[in-house]
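Something for you to look into today, if you have time. Could you write out one complete protein record for me, on any chain you like? The space below this message is yours for that.
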Amino acid sequence: MSLSVWYDLFLFLLLFALFVYVFATVAITDLRKVYLLFHFLMMLWPLCQFATGITHDRHLQLFYVTLSFVALSMLGSGWLLLTAFLTGNANKLGRKRLFLLSIPAVVAAAGVAKNPFNLFVKPLEGGYIHREYGPWFWVVIVILLSYFLASLSFLFRAFHSCRTILTIKKQVKITLWGIFVLATFALTDLLLNVVLREWLPIIPGLTSAGIFISALFFVFVIKRYNVLDIVSIAHEDVINTIPYGIMVVDENESIIEVNKALRLFVDVNVGDYFDMEKFLGSVRIAGSSRRFLEHYKHKNNILSQIEIIVEREPVSHFILQASPIIDSYRMQIGRILMFQDVSQERYLVKELNRQNEILRERNHSLDSIRNELSIANQKLKEMALTDSLTNCYNRYYLTEQLTHEIENNIQDRAPFSLILFDVDFFKAINDRYGHVIGDEVLYRTAQTVKQSLRSTDILIRYGGEEFIIYFPDTDRRLAEQLAEEVRLLVESTRILVGHENEPVSITLSMGALSVENFDIEHMPDNMEGYLMGLLSEADKALYQAKSNGRNRIEFAEY
């Protein structure tokens, strides 16, 4: 058994020890709950890598690989949630945002667990110890990268914000190091062991090592820093210089300090008991106070806020913020309540919204006109390039677009083939059934030919009953095979026309030409003339096919 397998087990045990240490030594707050979940998901990776390496059961190997990547998929959303808590942005994550935030992770995990058509992973050498990743693996990587960039956005904004206190900035700085370590190891693992695995030896344990080192950073942040200190924040000489109303309450909701500006909002004194629920019931609240009270009553260690409206002339708006005060053991020992007058801001926002609504209506009208013009232009373009009878490309497309396709083939020295064909005895069909039925036969023939073409092949109505097929990246051998498939499919198709009891059998005569040898120094000056020359050679081959009995393919020597 490889030593790298035991290396993953060793890292798992270290991560488990950190998990037990955090669980046993810190108070279980919302931030800790988020981190413990995050830590648990990190532990699953080395554990599953170890379990995959020690079992010979193919199905168990697939289970452990799936579980490790499901945990990794969910780790992205946990990563973002943890950084939101560390930067004090958790109050912005309501239930709806949490739900939307988790959708990409859940989709990624579901695709990993389902592994339809081996789109995520398939075994090599009879098991999943050596495996090949499919397109869904890269979807998971893109989703994780998106979570990583969103987390960086939270952290960098918090670090550079003038409103972020110094302690939070220190937390953010160390957390950034942890995230960069994890990302560096994981991306190195991806590059060396997935992208370059065919050329380089496998280096196991890179992601596991990155997870463990980053966990050390996160645990250090949790144990080292306190968000607020009650003595410095409650100091009277400081809070009286602040224009906002400030009230400091202890864990029993007794008021231990107020500043002078508080009198403008609420009439209380030091030593009074402050009943938050009763206070909110006595004023008008913008929105619902339920969530705010839930955070407040359960003593969640996050900043929460609510808007209060005072019904007087003029109407006043205030923001009430409740911030936890945490001791050195990360226990909540009180709160700071801050009242901020935002009446002027609300008026400006209201006026700005009114102006934005006017602009939005004008932009909506312009967008509607722009969309209508775009749709009309697209339809005109399609009509200009498409034959109205057969829905194939027309001769205008031949000269305007196909010349560019052939020019690119010549520059890339990629072989291509042209087939010029027409419907055998089409004049007899017109004479017997009339032009309406003749048009129907042309339409049905075109649809039948399209069924046998590849997505990159191009069918063009050249004129009358003549059509052109362009086969890119196709040499003569493949062109012969493809042309024969077209001919046989049309020959086997019976077309019912008019009131005739017997269906009409259609055959094709084909003239083909393949271009395989190129001289890049002699690029044709006139691509349209060059194309016409090719079609002229194909037309000679078509004439030869008709002379040799029709319903056959003749290749021009070019």
Remarks:
- The chain has a mean pLDDT of 82.
- The longest strand covers residues 316-326.
- The chain has 17 helices and 15 strands.
- The first helix runs from residue 3 to 25.
